Protein 1
Amino acid sequence: MPIDDFNITHEQAAQRLTNIWQAQNLIERQEWDLQQEEDDEANRQDQERRQQQEEERQRLLEEEQELARQEEWKKNRNKFLPYNKVPISSAILKLLSALAICKLKKGDYVEMHHFTNKGLAEAEASSCSLNNDAFALMKDNNGHHSFIPITAAKAKETIIPDKDLTWAEIDKAAPVYS
């Protein structure tokens, strides 16, 4: 270095120091900004990872709850049937005769007479008057003998064939029949 470089004024030295500081400060600010961007990116990725973990945890929880609901449904199907939420009717139900119920259980044809007002009234009267534990021996169309409740045997005697019913009786029996 030439000797006259050491002969600088205080103002020149201050200016050089200021320039050096500004250059160094600019570099450090750029490095700081770069570090902040990297930190922000790392924080964003960490936040995304936590959010994905939370979503996965929530999805697993929902699946677990759904499996529990399905298991509960399998164990207690009646609890989830739609009729559980239907209000209870205050109307008195008229039950079919024992003969009609036996035929329905077997899948046999049931005459419309059982569903008419007269047939329902006969079933109501006969069910109260006879012992339900008593049976009678009856012969069916195929010639086979079987025991049926006495109430059903008695009801067989008063059945009106479908062809002899009036249209008014059929009209009243149809909604009960379905």
Note: Strands lie at 135-139, 145-149.
Protein 2
Amino acid sequence: MANVQMTEDQLARILSALSPRASTAMQGSFAKCTARYSGQRDRAILEDFVTTTTIYKEIENITDDNAIKGLSLLLEDNAAIWWLGVKGTVKTWKKAAELLRDTFAPQRQAHEIYAEIFQTKQDPNKSTDAFIAEIRALFAELPQQLDANTQLDMIYAQLKYNIREKITRDQVATVEQLIEKARTIEKLEQEKMKHQPQPQLQERNEKKGRRCAHCRRPGHTTENGKMDMKEQQHHR
């Protein structure tokens, strides 16, 4: 077979023809993105969606044009209906994110956020880690951020009693220290619960070990010579 020789000019024309296709192929899309938003009026949920999709856009090298086109794939229910009406006016990803925030989770005034913070007490069944995450999300909404020490004071004031009882305010200098100490306490409490028999089970086990003074059978008792209705039926 004869060797095919190519001039530099021919090679340059071929590479020029291929480069736009290669560039297009490198552009990403939201086709495989799993983030979804259905229009919940919850700023934390919306911010999570915007942050996730923005990071995905950067990693996948998605252009603003492709991101605007692909946003329809990620919006559901009320958000999808809203987007149909406004997407023609949106040209940049930044504008799309701003419109989402303004429509579904507009910025609240500072006094409204403070009111929610002071009304949010830690539920006895909620971990301190999860509770602090909620309060921090509220701090993030404030137009002017509080200094770290003030945030720690406000968080500590809302903690459940058994955590404040075991961790005094002067024992922690940062929120991270508070979280670490609280985790240790809650882990020990969980271990303690595992090793403690449930009251009803303990009572049942104790009762099984006693014998009835009337019939000498195990599993029930009669005290002071008196029997309740159930025991009377049992002894008939």
Note: Residues 16 and 193 are 71 Å apart (CA to CA).
Protein 3
Amino acid sequence: MPDWTDLHAHIHRLLKARQLLPQGSHCLVAVSGGQDSMALLKLLWDLRPKWGWRVVVAHANHRWRADAEANASFVETWCRDHGISCDTVTAAQPPSSEAAARQWRYDQFHQLARYHGCTRVATGHTATDRAETLLYNLMRGSGADGLQALTWQRPLQPAAPLPIVLVRPLLAITRAETVAFCRQQGLPHWQDCTNQDRAYARNRIRLDLLPYLAEQFNPRVEHTLAQTAEVLAAEVAYLETMVDSLYASVVEADAGGRPRRLHRPPLQVSHVALQRRLIRRVLQQRQIAQVGFEQVAKVVHLITAPHRSQSDPLPGGAIARVDGDWIRFIDPDCA
């Protein structure tokens, strides 16, 4: 067993408490080569004998940077030197955005996990990432769902018949702690030059905003924001269970399973928080691309509006109209 550090003990206890990687799990570890993912790989590899895990590594080459091939080679070489299986996936074309890159990356991880028989995919997201995400989404006007977006675990592909779980074992530690661990262990990592590019909003949050908040307001701001996200995650989960129950008494779907009308009386006696959450879910199920506060508010208003009241056109052209005790969705070709 390698040297047992405080961080090894912390992660070991956390994994016991949260059951992110049960005994004997087969785990695909996503490794970019940066300090967080290298720290994660080292920790899981060192803890492997205690848990009986089978660990394999996946590296995603987005072809965004001139050093992308060298970055991939660094990860592959380190894994080979330590007897760890490593697969690199390379994008046919560089993704057009961060969102597209994330979707491509997770699609690839899902395929590799299935190929290797893994039921878990582990990523190196930290408390610092959680704090950055909360601030980023707060400034974009996100609700509680966006503010708690980085959770300990979630389905990697929710619609997949054989669910593979995405887990984030480092969410309780900061990036400064992974830096200290890498230094203590003599663990090399790859410097991604794009992490210093202030053209990206997330980099400005990490490089400028969080240090300012730590200096001027709260030295433990990263931990505090991460704990706030944890509180919100529990509250969102509770609200979702309540919406599940309300949904069954409110929503009537068409033959294709898409909501076509809503029964108003149960909504009228429900809290506005549940009204908004249910309406947002319905609009998402109707495949409205941009479901923001304004779109939800247009339909919420109809819960108590007079007969024949209707919304402005929603994205895609449909309108919502009051028909007695019902709110009916009318597509543009049926209006």
Note: Strands lie at 26-30, 54-61, 86-90, 120-122, 153-155, 165-167, 251-253, 259-263, 319-323, 326-330.
